[in-house]
Design goal:
four-stranded antiparallel beta sheet
Length: 158
């Protein structure tokens, strides 16, 4: 017996809309990618501005021993913690931040800027470190690389 040409095959409606679904997915991926690129550019610009603000250039502060620090007879204010470091100063104001570092930012280091500290003590896992910036000069202390450093410059004005 021959085929009945009046008989219709079942229609697969879900297959008819695949071009529209594919175009919608492609558009969503393009919008998502554009948002991601824009946010990464903004974050990169902010990170660059932060890097400039938190790493001023200047002459190094005088490093002191514990006994030389005690001989200054400058009582330090109560220490405060920033990340894994503890900072104390004799005078002035401080502005501090913990900056992400390492692969994907899983590590970090601390940076503090002081308006005119007179003397600074930094405590980290490796021990205590002491600095004496010139009297009345601002200072920036960083624990980048696991060893505190101090420069007689700061962008923080109090």
């Amino acid at each position: 017996m021959g085929k009945d040409y009046g008989e219709r095959k079942p229609t697969r409606y879900w297959l008819k809309g695949w071009p529209a679904i594919l175009c919608g997915l492609l558009a969503a991926a393009m919008v998502g990618g554009g948002v991601l690129v824009a946010s990464l550019r903004t974050a990169g610009a902010a990170k660059a501005a932060d890097a400039i603000y938190w790493s001023p250039q200047g002459p190094p502060c005088q490093a002191l021993t514990a006994s030389a620090f005690a001989a200054l007879h400058m009582p330090v204010q109560a220490p405060f913690a920033v990340g894994k470091a503890s900072f104390a100063r004799a005078h002035g104001h401080a502005d501090c931040i913990e900056i992400p570092a390492g692969f994907l930012g899983f590590d970090s280091y601390s940076v503090c800027q002081f308006t005119g500290p007179g003397a600074v003590m930094v405590s980290i896992a490796h021990g205590d470190f002491y600095f004496a910036p010139a009297f009345g000069h601002p200072a920036t202390v960083s624990t980048k690389g696991g060893r505190p450093t101090c420069v007689q410059a700061a962008n923080f004005k109090g």
